[in-house]
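Reviewer comment 2.1 asked that we show a complete input and output for one of the modelled complexes. We chose the magnesium ion case, as it is the one discussed in the main text.
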Amino acid sequence: LTVAEFDLIALIRDRCAIAREDVRLGIGDDAALLAVPAGQLLAVSTDTLVSGVHFPQSAKAYDIGWKALAVNLSDLAAMGATPAWAVLALTQPQADPRWVAEFAEGFAALAREFKFALVGGDTTQGPLSITVTVHGFVPDGAALLRSGARAGDAVFVTGTLGDAAAGLRCLDKNDCDADRLVSAPAGTRETLIERLHRPVPRVAQGLALRGRVSACIDISDGLLADLGHICSASGVGAELDADALPSSSALLAVFDADARRAFQLGGGDDYELCFTAKEGEASSLLGDLARSGCGATRIGRIVAKSGVRVSDAAGNCVPIVKAGWEHFE
Ligand code: ADP
Ligand code: MG
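Response of the prediction step:
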């Protein structure tokens, strides 16, 4: 451990270590000591963000800190788990205290919302990369799995879809759809880009779904790809109504129906929850989610025939542009 590493760890600890009764020993020793509540299972998940792959080289340190935690909390949300602790492996080319302080501020801003504690990690030199491992609690038997969807269930999604992919387009081309952008309300482009950089994990919504849904997944790779995972794990298929896909006002202001559908079905980085439930549960679920601060929309149904198909209100099949984002393509 060099002096520089020690300074970086102190910067991170000062911003991110939160007092929790179940953290018996946090950052500073060879390992953290943590108490899992009786009757609960530990839900564990990890995600790596690599510079130039998962975020542009130009991304702000604060946003990277936020997103590194958000994508991991989204996985806990999709399991119906309560977030508790994280460890952080940070690799950067040179010790850069300013960058690390901003990164930690972004991480901490989201962590504080959930009283979520950073309890350890590793700090090394190399190409910029961030790995966060998160831990949460879920009562034994209550986790939301991918494997329980049944023919006849309805398919739902929280929030709105496609904004992050649209935000990425705005960054790439620097114009979105230039003509429409001129007449869109001020800040529309920034709203879309913010959805890309600062996803909000649907933790409260995941908790509200416990015991009431047949399957759940978070949408990181695009609706078609991720609903496809529910379908394969459950041995079923799905039919989606293209006209039911929820759009934000920012997305509607700038992109036409074809572009919106491409972002909503195939774009990634939404970090909304996609879940399935019995038709009879729909109205109480939708009501409770609306009251939770993030509503949901019914977008289709589960069928016995495998695969995911999309049609519009007139019943016409909607061609599928790109089924999600995959590495090593
Ligand atoms: P060791 O050499 O025993 O693995 P380190 O010197 O790497 O320990 O780390 C010292 C302490 O700082 C440990 O408690 C470790 O978990 C914590 N730590 C190191 N890097 C980070 C980081 N990026 N974020 C949070 N905690 C960290
Ligand atoms: Mg040690």
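The first strand starts at residue 23 and ends at 25. We note this here for comparison with the apo prediction described in Section 3.2.
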